[in-house]
Design a protein that fits this description.
Distance between the termini: 29 Å
Shape: globular
């Protein structure tokens, strides 16, 4: 139950903490992220970026399915999928790095 690997609460909290720490480390303001999100244009170049983006795009479908079927565990499974996919992304793609454009794009993906 307290294992930090797999579909457990500590693993999910660790992934959430890691996600939140990226913006803090990158020193990107919320205003800049909001402005960048409104333009909505950026290119995904790394396969792990694409995999994370595809996973995140499933959210509306997951919520609709949970509402229609009245089975909320699907949302929990999706949260674990996002955490695991983000961990893969984080391990392969540096979000805070020397190239500002790549770093900003990855911070935006995280947001």
């Amino acid at each position: 139950m307290l294992d930090d690997k797999g579909n457990t609460a500590p693993y999910m909290l660790y992934a959430y903490t890691r996600i939140r720490s990226i913006a803090r480390t990158a020193n990107v303001s919320e205003a800049k992220l909001t402005e960048a999100a409104q333009t909505g244009n950026f290119t995904l170049q790394h396969p792990k970026e694409l995999k994370l983006a595809m996973c995140l795009l499933k959210l509306p479908e997951v919520i609709l399915r949970a509402m229609e079927m009245l089975m909320l565990h699907g949302i929990c499974e999706y949260m674990y999928e996002v955490a695991a996919t983000f961990t893969e992304f984080y391990d392969k793609c540096y979000c805070v790095q020397k190239d500002p454009k790549t770093g900003e794009r990855r911070v935006r993906l995280r947001e």
